[in-house]
Amino acid sequence: MELTLQKKTVLGLQHTIAMFGATVLVPLITGLNPSVALVAAGVGTLLFHLVTKQMVPVFLGSSFAFIPPILIGVERGYSWAGIGAGIVGAAVVYIAMSILVTFVGHDIVKRVFPPIVTGPVITVIGITLAPVAISQAEGAWWLAIVTLAATIIAAIFFRGLFQMLPILTGAIVGYVTGALFYSDFSFDAVREADWLGWPEFTWGLGDLSWAPIALIAPIAFVTMIEHVGDILANGRVVGKDFFDEPGLNRTLLGDGIATMFAGLVGGPPNTTYSENTGVLAVTKVYDPFIIRIGALFAIFLGLIPKLAAVLRTVPVPVLGGLSVVLFGMIASVGLRTLVEGQVDFKKSRNMIVVGLILVFGLGVSGLSSPLAIGDVEISGLALAAVIGVVANLILPMDTEEAQVAMPSETKSST
Length: 414
Known about the structure:
Blueprint: H1 5-30, H2 34-51, E1 60-62, H3 67-75, H4 80-104, H5 107-112, H6 115-137, H7 141-157, H8 166-181, H9 188-192, H10 210-216, H11 220-238, H12 243-265, E2 270-272, H13 274-283, H14 288-302, H15 305-312, H16 316-340, H17 348-365, E3 372-373, E4 376-377, H18 380-394
Antiparallel strand pairs: 1-2, 3-4
């Protein structure tokens, strides 16, 4: 059945709503501009579609995997321009992998990033972020718990599209409750904000420093495997093999270019969103043009300063309640990756690989003083990923284990 432009517009807005909560939560947690994040997500999605021949119905939004290194960068006093250079560095990693896949095929991704590596690395992301959620919530536990309860109820008891929007539901309930009863709530910034205007972009690299680049760029190796799983899941929903056409090399390139744009304008890194793949499954409408309409809505919302002001008045404990769910889900997705990848923990080899990732990832992240080589700080997450990849490649495996399964449909906006 041919859909009218009006119906396509409504469906596009639905995709914007699906990505909205998680996309703006990342800048709210890290201190980046939520309006820039929305514009970066919208433009990034359009760039992705351009690179992938307008064939893949994927929406890009802010990546949670980059929250730990960005927060560390802020704590160490790196400038926002320097952090943007680190995000551009992550984009370069994506583009380099795209070129590699073009020449050697996508099996290289499966060999280097199997579930035994990606699962525990994703778990490390969630556990590393746990203290952030608790510190946000402790300012007003009652408000964090109200937000948390609303989010859980939406995720478990709601049905259809509303079940896919638990973060947005929890944020709305928490915000309204905070506006009514939270003593530190203020609406003054919203009253003073304009209705239309350009967000505060930070054009260009600005501060080209190796320290934030070395801290942030390696996280691309973590989100890359998430990208592979999302493209696989999206293809299964749509009924097409996007690894074959337009090709994994093009989807990686599109993700990299979108993330590069985000870094150049001051937004958080982008990643493919399975929330929108879920919307495709519910509506059974797979037209990529509708996703592009949603991207235009995201850009428009980013041009409304009053909306940005509303987002910045969200009480910190509300963010804490949302973060408890999101960061816990990220850790759980990592465990699910191990289960669905059928990793056999009866084998000492597998226990060693996973153990190394967990200990180095969590241990280095928890050091009171950063691990560094010269002036370059080493991220615990990046170190864990590198050690996991190397250990998995050099430690001998049984013949049956040599058949590495394709990553499963894992995603929680990391």
